[in-house]
Amino acid sequence: MDYSHPQIISLPKIHDPRGNLTFVEEGSIVPFEIRRAYWIYDVPAAEERGGHSHHEMSQLLVAVGGSFNVNVCDGIHWRTFTLNRPFEGLFIPPGFWRTLDNFSSGAVCLSLVSTHYEEADYIRDFEEFKRLAMIHPRYLDV
Ligand code: TYD
Question: What are the chain's domains?
Answer without folding.
Answer: 7-139 (2.60.120.10)
